[in-house]
């Protein structure tokens, strides 16, 4: 079921057991936008069903925050247009060549191409791993991007961050909601969940220049600016 976080913004809350992140929905007068496509067709369909049940229009666009499987593996099942950063789309292109067999997955885990946390949760999400399908987005952007939904706008800002080599934050100024992807989480691919200090502070500088009132991290409940500050202090004292 959707949770309304502001007049025009909703989320399908995250599910840690299956590593399903929060999926966002921005309701516009002219068209509506999905934020992230989920970790599978099933995750995406759960979101689309929840939107329908809430009596809201089907989203026309899906904006992707970063390339990680839990945010992108539902893209192939989305009938609208998908949009992501050029860097994200480049990484997705590499992933389209990956084979989804037990042997290929084991090999990627061994070589470090795949992270253990992701590998484990893919096996939980997918009963049949051969159903995994990776596609590139239809539209790419390389700088800031603004979408005009009629009554409301979406501002997309690519951002250096400690979590992945790509990544954009998505701000809805009228509602003061910021979708951060997983940007202030550590890097599970290169640093085993650890943090690059410079990237962490560079990210905070960008994020804190945005006047949000609600902060949506991919895998946590929505936070107020005060809660974000406590969350970051926790990272600073234990992970940096
Ligand atoms: Zn991620």
TrEMBL record:
InterPro entries: Metallo-B-lactamas (IPR001279), NDM-1-like (IPR050855), RibonucZ/Hydroxyglut_hydro (IPR036866). Pfam families: Lactamase_B. Residues 20-219 form the Metallo-beta-lactamase domain. It comes from the Bacteria. Gene3D superfamilies: Ribonuclease Z/Hydroxyacylglutathione hydrolase-like (3.60.15.10). This is Glyoxylase, beta-lactamase superfamily II. It comes from Jeotgalicoccus aerolatus.
């Amino acid at each position: 079921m959707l949770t309304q976080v502001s007049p025009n913004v909703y989320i399908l809350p995250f599910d840690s057991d299956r590593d399903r992140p929060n999926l966002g929905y921005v309701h516009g007068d002219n068209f509506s936008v999905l934020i992230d496509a989920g970790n599978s067709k099933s995750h995406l369909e759960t979101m689309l069903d929840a939107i329908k049940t809430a009596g809201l229009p089907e989203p026309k666009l899906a904006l992707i925050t970063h390339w990680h499987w839990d945010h992108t593996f539902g893209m192939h099942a989305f009938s609208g247009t998908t949009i992501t950063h050029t860097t994200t789309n480049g990484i997705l292109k590499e992933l389209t060549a990956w084979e989804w067999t037990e042997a290929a997955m084991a090999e990627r885990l061994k070589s470090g191409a795949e992270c253990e946390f992701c590998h484990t949760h893919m096996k939980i999400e997918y009963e049949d791993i051969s159903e995994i399908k990776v596609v590139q987005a239809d539209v790419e952007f390389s700088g800031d991007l603004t979408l005009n939904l009629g009554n409301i706008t979406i501002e997309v800002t690519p951002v250096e961050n400690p979590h992945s080599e790509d990544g954009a934050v998505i701000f809805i100024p009228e509602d003061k909601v910021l979708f951060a992807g997983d940007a202030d989480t550590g890097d599970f691919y290169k640093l085993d969940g650890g943090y690059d200090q410079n990237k962490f502070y560079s990210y905070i500088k960008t994020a804190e220049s945005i006047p949000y009132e609600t902060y949506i991290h991919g895998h946590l409940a929505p936070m107020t600016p005060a809660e974000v500050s406590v969350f970051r202090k926790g990272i600073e004292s234990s992970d940096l």
